[in-house]
Recover the amino acids of this structure.
């Protein structure tokens, strides 16, 4: 199956393209960044209509978007332009091409701060910042094309992903670099937030399952790691796996709004039941792969 992957040069996109390439798919990458098979912006309707529409593909994985929360707060217009109107362009392309599947990468952020855990797919949405709202809009656009245009869409809502190519400011690569250098690691709010981290290869496997299984059509799937742990526990895990002697420093919350720890982790029963999903890598295996990549200069 030939699969168009938007945002192919991003952290997650590179994992998705790599996984699909090794598991019987033929991905075609498009991104605004050099290195993609086709370079251009999904916001540009002429690029989508003239360049992407000429390509031969049977499915689309739509990852392209602005994911930097701080940037979306500072510039919500650009966030909505890319994450919403760009998504609309991709959906229209998929409808015209008559694809067999369109996978839309939404986010666990659509749920906001959940009132209870684990979070199931029928929980109410409670977005807080422009990025969150843009994903809610994207999901609604996708479902409208499913119901009115017959585009066979499926959606993912992922929690904390990590791995090779991740941005150095994000939690896992930040911890790893600090521990490898023997530097002190500060944890805001004493690291009490709770999540379900997973290596991006596990998420890439979910994408492949959705492309393969007709049961995925019209569905949203929560995605998180097999283990649920606090940010402090995660830092301690990384410290152990790097054999580091660094100290953990318990810091106060960054703001009064963050004084109450955010505890959010998903139920993954649906993806297991409908897709027969099993994890590619354990948490420790994923962290070790990421450590190895950073040690080699990543």
């Amino acid at each position: 199956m030939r699969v168009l992957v938007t945002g192919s040069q991003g952290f997650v996109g590179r994992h998705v393209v790599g996984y699909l390439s090794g598991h019987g798919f033929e991905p075609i990458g498009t991104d605004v960044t050099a290195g993609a098979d086709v370079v251009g912006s999904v916001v540009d309707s002429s690029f989508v209509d003239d360049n992407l529409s000429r390509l031969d593909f049977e499915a689309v994985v739509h990852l392209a978007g602005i994911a930097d929360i701080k940037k979306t707060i500072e510039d919500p217009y650009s966030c909505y332009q890319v994450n919403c109107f760009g998504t609309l362009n991709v959906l229209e392309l998929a409808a015209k091409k008559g694809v067999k599947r369109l996978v839309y990468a939404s986010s666990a952020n659509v749920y906001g701060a959940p009132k209870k855990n684990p979070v199931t797919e029928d929980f109410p949405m409670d977005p807080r910042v422009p990025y969150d709202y843009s994903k809610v809009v994207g999901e609604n656009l996708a479902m409208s094309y499913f119901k009115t245009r017959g585009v066979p869409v499926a959606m993912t809502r992922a929690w904390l992903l990590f791995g090779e190519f991740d941005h150095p400011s994000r939690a896992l690569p930040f911890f790893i670099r600090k521990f490898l250098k023997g530097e002190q690691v500060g944890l805001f709010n004493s690291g009490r937030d709770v999540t379900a981290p997973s290596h991006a290869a596990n998420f890439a496997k979910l994408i492949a399952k959705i492309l393969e299984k007709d049961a995925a059509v019209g569905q949203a799937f929560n995605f998180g790691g097999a283990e649920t742990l606090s940010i402090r526990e995660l830092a301690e895990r990384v410290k152990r796996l790097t054999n580091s002697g660094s100290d953990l420093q318990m810091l106060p919350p960054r703001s009064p709004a963050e004084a109450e720890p955010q505890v959010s982790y998903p139920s993954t029963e649906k993806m297991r039941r409908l897709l027969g999903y099993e994890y590619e890598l354990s948490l420790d295996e994923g962290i070790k792969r990421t450590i190895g990549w950073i040690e080699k200069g990543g």
